[in-house]
Each structure stands twice: as C-alpha cells, then as structure tokens.
Amino acid sequence: MRIDENLMKVKQELPDQVSLVAVSKTKPNDLILEAYAAGQRIFGENKIQEMCDKHQELPKDIQWHMIGHVQRNKVKYMAAFVSLIHAVDSMRLLKEINKQAKNNNRVIDCLLQVYIASEQTKFGLDKQELLDILGSQEFKEFKNIRIKGLMGMASFTTDKQQIENEFTELNQIYNLIKQDYSGLENIDLDTLSMGMSNDYKIAIDCGSTMVRIGSSIFGDRNY
Ligand SMILES: *Cc1c(COP(=O)(O)O)cnc(C)c1O
C-alpha cells in the first residue's frame, strides 16, 4: 500500500478551503512518517496516551489533533502540545482544558462536538446545551481556550440522504452561532469538522471545512 498515493487521491477531492486531518490512530510511526514525507502535517488520534507517545517520537512540526472522547483527568498530558481538541462535549471538560492551558501559558483551540446522529452511542452536545454553554457567564471567563468551531459525526448508515440531513443540520447550527456569538473574545469561528472516509464528499457538499480521514489513507484498522 502506498500512503503517498492514497493521500494524493484524497487531496484531489478536497477544495482548497478544506483542511485534512490524517487519522493515524492505531497506526505505527513508519506509516505516519510516510504521510509526513508526502507533506502531511496534521494528524488525528483518539487516545491521549497514544498521541503523547507519537508526539514524543515524531517530528516536532506535526500538529496533533485529539479527535476522540476526552477524559478530564487526562487533559494535562496533552495540554502542552495539542493543536486542536475536536470533541469537547461538556462545560466541565472545557473548564479543565482552560485550567491546563493556563498552567502551560497557552491558549488551546477547541471544537464543540454536537450530536447529530440518530444512534445512541455517539457523544456530543445537543443544540440547546451548546447555546447554554456559549451563553453562560462562566464560559466568558475562560481566557485560555478558543472555540474555533464545531465537530460532528453522522450516523453510520448507507442512507446518503440521512447523512446529508445530519451534516446540513450541523452546518445550520454552525452558522447560527457564527451570527450570535462571534463577538466573544474566546470565540474565533472558522472550522466545521465533519466527514470521514465513507462520508467526506457529502460533508464537503454540506459545508465542511475540515475532514478527518483514516482508512482511506492508512488502510483498514485492525483492533
Ligand atoms: C477514527 C475516526 C475517524 C476516521 O475514520 P475513517 O473511517 O477511518 O476515515 C474520524 N473521526 C473520528 C472521531 C474517528 O474516531
């Protein structure tokens, strides 16, 4: 399997304004280095320990994105270097990220994860919970986080119309918060993270600005 060829194929499908997170979870460093050699700099992981190990071992100009569910007690391990946290889904987690960012004298970019799928297994906020967070006084006082946008996952289904409806809903919520909350200092919206290997073309048609692609680049994962 040629990582560089896979990467090129995926990139050909992406408009200029859409950035690519190469999802390298479970994949060894040598495959990541092949993608790196082909010019890829943004990599996504879903386990903090694994991301920390890879960060130590691999080139320092890689931007590491945490795309998985985050446990609060592990934020401290990645706070010094993580480039974007995609799946922030509670006020308590945001508060911990703010605290650990402050300890490291930095501002950490975050996306709020919104629940759009019909399945019960996916994490995320609903629209009202999202608005409650952004509208709260406590949120305004978080000086060490910056909300860059939203992240969402569509249902795991072959029904393209359903996927399209879910991504469209997320795009509408994104536009709504852009309209109503862009004035806050810790909000700087430019990222709508949606789309994976099997649905990223639909996601782009629905307004995605960031896709998270693993198996189309690195091959299937064996768990
Ligand atoms: C694993 C994962 C991806 C990538 O999935 P592929 O189907 O391999 O492209 C994207 N986003 C999240 C949150 C993931 O956990």
Secondary structure class reads: alpha/beta
Q: Write down the Rg.
A: 17 Å
Listed once per kind, the bound small molecules are: pyridoxal-5'-phosphate
Count of DSSP H/I helices: 10
Spatial ordering of strands, largest sheet: 7-6-5-4-3-2-1-8
Q: Report the count of strand segments.
A: 8
Summarize the amount of helix as a percent range: 40-55%
Main sheet overview: 8 strands, parallel
| General form | globular
Query: What's the helix-strand series?
Result: HEHEHEHEHEHHEHEHEH
Share in β-strands: 15-25%
Description of the molecule:
- The structure is a single chain.
- The model has no long low-confidence stretch (mean pLDDT 96).
- Helix 4 (75-78) links the parallel strand 3 and strand 4 (84-88).
- This protein starts with a helix and ends in a 5-residue tail after the last helix.
- The longest helix has 22 residues, at 160-181.
- The protein has helices spanning 3-12, 29-37, 48-57, 75-78, 91-103, 127-135, 137-140, 160-181, 200-205, 215-218; strands spanning 19-23, 42-45, 63-66, 84-88, 108-113, 145-151, 187-193, 210-213.
- The protein has an eight-stranded parallel sheet with strand order 7-6-5-4-3-2-1-8.
- It is of the alpha/beta class and 223 residues long.
- It is built from ten helices and eight strands.
- The site of pyridoxal-5'-phosphate (PLP) has 13 residues, from strand 8 and helix 10.
Concise structural overview:
The chain is 41% helix and 19% strand. It is α/β, with parallel strands linked by helices and 223 residues long. It binds pyridoxal-5'-phosphate.
